[in-house]
Amino acid sequence: LFHLSQRKKYELLIDMEDFEGSKAYARYSSFSIGPESDGYRLQLTGFINGGAGDSIIHISGQKFSTFDKDNDTWE
Q1: Residue 43 three-state SS
Q2: Which one, out of 7, 12, 21, 44, has a CA that is 20 to 30 A from the CA of 30?
Q3: What's the gap between Cα 37 and its chain centre?
């Protein structure tokens, strides 16, 4: 993802549907992943509301974690 997101500008679209069938989305006009040396840090900007609210913006700037490398601040 790091290499792909460095080559050109990408948007991130998150489609959601609840158990009653109601649909909403959150869209960000800019999405990128930082290099391994920075823990694959996520960057999101340009929120466009699709009814879901800006509920994941708090993870922008956070590092990715994997089963063998804990990079985030979640306990």
Answers
A1: strand
A2: 21
A3: 19
Task: Report long-range pairs for 1-10 (Cβ below 8 Å, ≥24 apart).
Answer: 1/33, 1/40, 2/33, 2/34, 2/35, 2/36, 2/40, 5/31, 5/32, 5/33, 6/32
- The whole-angstrom separation of Cα 45 and Cα 62 is 13
- The Cα 20–Cα 34 span in angstroms is 37
12-53 pLDDT, tens digit each: 898 999 999 999 998 999 989 888 888 888 899 999 888 888
Whose tokens are 């948007």? That residue is 11
Residues 27, 7 contacting (CB under 8 angstroms): no
Q: What is the pTM of this model?
A: 0.71
